[in-house]
Fold each of these.
Amino acid sequence: MRRNNRELMWNAYNNGVVIPSFNIPYLPMVAPIAQALVDTNAFGFLAVARPEWTRFEAGSQEAVQREYAMFRRESWMRLHQDHVPVVDEDQLAVDFMPILSRAIELGYDSIMVDGSRLALMDNIVATRQVVELAAPHGIPVEGELGAVLGHEAGPLPPYEELFQSGQGSTSADDAARFVEETGADWLSVACGNIHGAIRGSAKDRQKARARLNIEHLARLRQAAGIPLVLHGGSGIRKESIQAGIANGIAKINIATDLRQPYEQAQRRGKSVDEARQIVYERACGLLTDVLEMADSRDIINPA
């Protein structure tokens, strides 16, 4: 029996393991990531966010879906529509519903609406619209609450200042209300994690070595009562990731850790095949050394 992404996320959540979600800013990255999942016998999502076709070279939702279809092995992977913002990183309104409707039409296995730049009630309304859109198709919806910083223009404050101040952290009270009033299946939260930069020269800089506020994450888990998602997973300390998984993180998004090596290889004049090999080796390393991924069967057919 084919399990949908809703069941797979609950399997991860209930069994204390995590599903990695690898972002695709360049189409040639699909093949090595898919192969890494198979070769390490890990289960993961391949994902594309709106900035990856507006700021990078993913092309479009359609292009990613076509490339994914060439390498799809469903015992090891599914396709996820990542961040579709209601208001984008430039503070511009996005016509988000047609984008998410198109993802469903194309066969994406789950979708994400990001209303985190809105006031709470406006975020609830937008996310509920998407849940109602997806429900007849059996497609699970991820929402976001709190500010996972990093995509906006201008430099971030020093990471330690961000962490100590709790700037952008998801409110536990808001999380309980958000889940209750939207019906979202999973919740992306902010608890010390940050995105990698996607603008100009900043996108080439090494990310800060982030960590998670585990006490706050435990409160969020209790308040939300659904699988939690960690965006900005690149660069987070291994011990923090492991503690996060133990406290409700069922999906971790990884972009910068694979995007930057691919871009660096291209700038050094490496061929596409050589750049793909670098991505493959890096993905295998992440799956085995950093995430210590569970056998794919623990997600697909848990005991």
Amino acid sequence: MSNLSTSTAEVEIVFCTACNWLLRSSWMAQEILSTFSSEIEKLSLVPSKDAGQFEIRVNGQIIWERKKDEGFPTVKELKQRVRDQINPDMDLGHVDGKK
């Protein structure tokens, strides 16, 4: 049984190659895919020559920008922001904590 019909989101992680953020980016990609495997159609790691660039985009919309958001997201922030874009009603269990 396939969930491909529900897969609609495209996620891009844009990272500075000079800063050596490939490992961080691939770890975040793994976290996203492990949580949202049936909601994501495509996840891309996009190397950037722009110094210090680190952005996460969902369907073309920036949901995290390192310079604006002052650093990198925690796993909790990452999953919540992705969820808010692709499936706002999804319960993330312990990641959401008590409401």
Amino acid sequence: MMTHNPSRRIFLGGSLAATAASSTGILTPAALAASPSMDVPKVIYGPQAGIAKLNANENPYGPSPAALKAIANASSSGGAYYAYNAGMYLTDMIAEEYGLSAKNISVTAGSSLILAFAALAATSKGVILGPDLFWDTTSKAPIRQGGPEIKRVPNTADLSIDLDAIYNAIDDNVAMVHICNPNNPTGKILDPKKLKAFCIKASKKTLVLVDEAYNELIEDGPSHSMIPLIKQGHNIIVARTFSKIFGLAGMRVGYMLGSEENMSFINRFGLGGYSLNQAGLAAAIASYKDEAFKDFSREKVAQAKDMILTAVKENGLTALPSSTNFVFVNLGDNGDANAFQKAMAEQNVLIRGQYRAYKPWSRVSTGRIEDVKMYVDAIPKALEAIYRS
């Protein structure tokens, strides 16, 4: 069967095809390096120059120097092979830190994948329960396949997660409660003692998932983590990612921790180690204990958040307190997040638009300081555009 793939045709039609037709017919690394005609296709792997990309909660300061070195080594020596050994090495590192076994951990290509598997597993038994406003992309995965809608509980007046209301909403049809802490898109964090008490109580009735994607961005992250509850035998699963503080969003490495029984059930919906890649795992392994880079990233996030919050106040707006690498900005009673997003894009600043029914609320990530400066400078013109229209 013929397929139309312009990139493949262009690539094979150039120097690669010519080299492949040479007398040896073998492309070795040495041959590639020595061949001046072997051009690498020009691909844009990140935002174009002049674009402030502040819409996806990425850390543009990663991968760290140690991760970049590991990526190069892994790609050259192991890129041709499946990544089982590296996956097990990272799994063992995580297990050792939390006093768990390898069977308590599942590493996948980003936490989104294992979160989607958990959602599919849960909805094979019932429905997912969560607050009205949370990062629900993976919990929506079953819906796209004809599964049940998420059962939602209203947030409080200040947009906090109402743990008491969520607990009271658990019934026999709820197969999993989904909590993000810190929450996305609000950036708010729950009191760790209250969350722990909720998890212990709620997990007696159903499975509780806590997505801790932004935990490492908190200065005292371990005190806010629910991972210790797993070792204590509670019906809890916790998701983590290397996409945020480690700056590895494009390398796709995440993981979930839970009881052996829960992880075995969730993994039935997955692909095993075949979703993993050597370069991403190498970067994750090199980054995992890199406290200096984590401190550096937190400092950059704090600096950028201060710039955003100062600009918000100077422009007569307000924002929620944030424990993450983004800020949820209130554009006012007549604000329009989608219109603001469009007005910002016209100034080469990319941010998020409206979430659910929260029309005045606009989320902006903390990217490079120079990009955050573009956002700050663009606010007055963007506000003028949306209120003029």
Amino acid sequence: MDTFTQRYTQQERMEFFLQALFILFVICAVIQLYYSWFIFSGLAFLKPGFQEKKPEPVPVSVVIAAKNEYTNLKNNLPYILSQDYPEFEVVVVNDSSDDDTLVLLDDFRTGHKNLKVINISENLNFFKGKKFPLTVGIKSARFEHLLLTDADCKPRSNQWIKKMTSNYVAGTEVVIGYGPYERKRGMLDKLVRYEALHVAVQYLSFTIKGMPYMGVGRNLSYIRSLFYRNKGFSSHYTIASGDDDLFINKVADKKNTVAEIHPDSHTVSSQPASFSSLFRQKKRHLSTSFYYKSKFKWLLGIYNFTQFFFWITFFLIIILDHNILYLLSIWAVRMFSHYYILGRSMKKLKEENLLVYSPLMEVIFVVINPILAFSNLIYKHDKWK
């Protein structure tokens, strides 16, 4: 009798555990559906004519911070200097490079009057990361409207400046663009491009919905007076990253910020060379998000938390329970919604070929992200090169 009672109690406990897992799974699925249909739909269903603005062209200063970037500048700077735009300058800050970056920039300057080279000859970088050279570049710029990119980026077209700055109508102070990675083959390529795309779908959708919280330094524009009014990067100068997302998190709001997604406005970047480079890059992004405004830490945290437990509870119930009809039905609704919205967003950003790999990529990052976040508690990265 005691053995029977003990077995019955264990069975009850297992049923209670499975019920709790299922309830958590349903809650996570519902929250994920909310994010898909009420936030990420902002990008997915953006109307084609939404951003057809034709203001008068404004003079623009393109600012690039470079450290040991000889090869990237040689390959990419010509695409920036040859933009189809009436008045612009390119300001490149050489941050005490020990390769031939400065020699190359001097050669470029001979044939391009609109190229300004600022050389930091000694290691005077009292900021963390590239915030000091960027600050030098911004202060050296001639024009009020700034367009920032990296040395390893090249515009997808000669209309890049025109598309990004066409958003400067009355009241606009920040323009957030998209910076995909070049296409290659292999698993690393899929991980790199999916991760960049997934992050972009989030920040572009939030911006379109009037809740801007970050941009990427690969393709970002704002006005210089906004930079000065907010004392530049001084509020987070001790953090290696954040010259893009922490600054935008501080200064952007629904009235002064717009997103630009036209393919001609994209900049294409070189991929991280290895899995370890990708994970270091991802760690920097995760560590920076800790300093976001509380509102966005909660919004992004809830999304990531429910995504993680959606998959964990799904697999646990699959393993432990044989009656999974309701589970699979709810799972299918979430998956269809998520990838329908993601697929539409991919089409707008010209990344459609990633869709077939996305479920696998999602599961991989659901596992990897918590590991990288935990490792940030042990090791902190404070250099940009």
